Every structure is written in C-alpha cells, then in structure tokens.
Amino acid sequence: MVSLLTLLCASPLIAQDKEKVCTDFQNRPMRVGEWADYRWKGGRSEGSTMRMALVGTEAVAGKPNYWYEIALNDARHGKTILQLLVPGFGFQASSIHGLIMKSGSEPAMRMPQQMVQMMAGQMGQNFAAEFARKCAQMEVAGWEQLTVPAGTFRALHIKDAGEQTEAWVVPDLYFGVARVQLKDGSAMELTGKGTGAKSSITETPQVMPSPR
Questions:
Q1: Is residue 25 one of the residues assigned to a domain?
Q2: pLDDT (tens digit per residue) in 30-60
Q3: Considering the domain boundaries, does residue 18 fall inside one?
Q4: DSSP label at 210?
Q5: Within 10 A of 180 (CB to CB), how many other CB atoms are there?
Q6: Cα 182 vs. chain centroid, distance in angstroms?
Q7: Is the torsion defined by CA of 26, 28, 29, 35 positive or negative?
Q8: Under 8 Å between Cβ of 103 and 73
Q9: Residue 161 DSSP class
Q10: Percent of the chain at pLDDT above 90?
Q11: pTM of the prediction?
C-alpha cells in the first residue's frame, strides 16, 4: 500500500519535471561555442557520428540569428556538414534564413534564399528542433541513472509510443539529450560535450546561383 501511494504521489511530480525540462529546452538561450558529439550503435548507422554545435551569429532584419551546425560522418557515405541560420532551437522550417552545405571534399556552398525556402521542409527536420517540438507530447517513464560514453547522468526517460522512440534527457546538458533509441533498436549516445566550438567549414563558402 505504501509503495502504491508513493507511486501515485510521484507520477504528477515526474510529469511536472518533464514539462519543465521541455519548456527549458525550447526556451534555452543560444550560446555560440556549445557543442555535443554523438555516436550511433546498431542498425544501418552503426559507427556513424554526429556533432551539433553553435558556431556563429548573423543578423536577420536587425535581429540575431545563429549558425547551428550539424556535422554527420556516415560510416558508408562520408562526411556532410549542414549549417542552418536560425533564431532558436525550436525553429520552424519557415524560419531558416540561411543554409550552407559541404559534402566530403566538395566546395562549401551557400544556398540562395529562394532555394533555402524550397528546401526548408527537408532541412528543418533535425535532431534538436524535432526534440524541442515533440518533447512535450512524449510520455514520461521516470528518472533513471544513465551511463553513456560521455559519463553517467541522472536522466529523465521519455517515450514516443507512436514512433516507438525513446530519449533520455539531462537538464544540465546544453543540447539536452544523452541517448536516443529508435524502433529498430539502434541508439545514438553522447560521447562528448563542451564549449569553444568553431565552424567545421574553414573555407569561404561559394554562393550558389539562384534558380531561374
């Protein structure tokens, strides 16, 4: 009986924890230099890595926007770097104001704004933005002790039953998530984090001509 009462009392508190964690992440101030590294285990992406980082700022209509970099190193297809100019973490596809792409050894290209809008539907689907939008709708399983390559954390375990995905969220981590598991059993785990990130693109991007 005592255990049941404890569970009944704890459940609303855990739900409040999740609401606070999700709200904090959606409203987290953008801090240039923050970075986090992840590695995939299992599935088709086994051995692939991903780095998320905030690498610069640029004003849009007089307001600060931020270059959010996603560097993917696929075990089969090589390295791709995307840099999105966005106002914040929970950005919508329509609020992407710049896009720079670099694939392998090819020159870095900055897309014209017309093309950015055309591609926004695809480019807007990224880890941090998707998590910021879906966090509040996910079910909460509770607080757990989680160990990943980057260390051991107290993490809030949440689930998306419809998509059969799970995430372990750590409030003190700038990018929020320490582990994500997909329905095929593959998982993405935090391997490192820190500050002082610089752009992975060292050359001056070429400007792609506008489509006619």
A1: no
A2: 999 999 999 999 887 788 999 999 999 999 9
A3: no
A4: P
A5: 19
A6: 15
A7: negative
A8: no
A9: T
A10: 39
A11: 0.82
